[in-house]
Amino acid sequence: MKFGTYVFEPKKAEGFDFHLFRVKPEVGRRLPPVSDMYSNIAVFGDNVTARNHPDWISQSPLGPAWRTNDNFNVRWDILCHTQPEHRAEQLDYIEDVARHSPGIWLNSIHFADHGHCTCARCNELWKKSGLSWFEWRRKEVTDYIAQIRERVKNELVIGLLPDPVNSYERFGVNFDDLAPYADAFNIVMFSKNYATPWYWEMLCRAFKKLLKKPVYVSFYVFGPGDNPAEVPAPSELVTLSVRAGRTGIDGILYLTDKASQIWDFQKAVVDRVELRQKLKTYGCQEVLDFFATWEKIVE
Ligand SMILES: [Zn+2]
Fold it and tell me: Would you place residue 299 in the very low, low, confident or very high pLDDT band (cuts 50, 70, 90)?
């Protein structure tokens, strides 16, 4: 297994195999990539572009994909997947960022959710395609990933939302279509608590079974502006990591706003001596050995 940080600033915390920097998160702000951290780019979830071009927002019978639309689990504004100017601009942007970093980890590569997008352009493209609605969406998503693959000469990792069953109907995502273009997949499993690891372990097993490329999962430690009382307990993350690790996944990333919060997390993990001892019978010594390497870092 490999272990990475997943951070909103271009700073590397010690004690990890690799680092992922949120160059362009879903809020849409952009920071310059750095040469020794992978670059994370959200493509269609993009609040800044949605604000500048409100007519580019994805449409549906249950309303547009503004983050205020409670019919969907949209945490940010999501653009129409076929908006040609945005697609072209993002291809150039991704190519440029790839040239200045070791590779690209993509988020938000698909349609907003079920029923999207019903704008006039999408309806016309769908009717012209001669395909069913679901198959047309699948083709749009796969074709755009193929175009991105042509622009990225180094590592390309495709981010997926944690729905192993309905990603085709909801997002137009077919896992087998995307596998040939991906060096790996990253399943974003963000939550403000992990009190019941059973569910996350099940999702890890499901994705490991379904995906034909290495599977990384990303866990939430401390997000921008978070109240320290409302983030996952370090003990939950320790147990979760071991239980995820034993499913055969290929790596884990830990998300924080700042690199210093990764250090806080490492300190807390090292301090959980009894818990780490207890987890020795859980069947994933590899994760426990990795946590033990932090003892030297936080001294
Ligand atoms: Zn559309």
Answer: confident
Residue-wise pLDDT tens digits, 15-73 = 999 999 999 999 999 999 999 999 999 999 999 999 999 999 999 999 999 999 999 98
CB 57 within 8 A of CB 79: yes
Chain centroid offset of residue 157 CA: 9
108 C-alpha vs ligand 1 centroid, how far in Å?
15
| Number of other CB atoms surrounding residue 73 within 10 Å | 11
Query: 165 alpha carbon to ligand 1 midpoint, in Å?
Result: 24
Tally the residues of the chain. Answer: 299
Looking at residue 106, its amino acid is: L
Distance separating alpha carbons of residues 86 and 102, to the nearest angstrom: 24
Q: Using alpha carbons only, what angle is made at residue 86 by residues 80 and 88, rounded to the nearest 5 degrees?
A: 130
Contact 156, 182 (CB under 8 A): yes
Q: Which two tokens stand for residue 246?
A: 């034993």
Q: How many CB atoms lie within 10 A of CB 183?
A: 16
Distance 153 CA to ligand 1 centre (A): 29
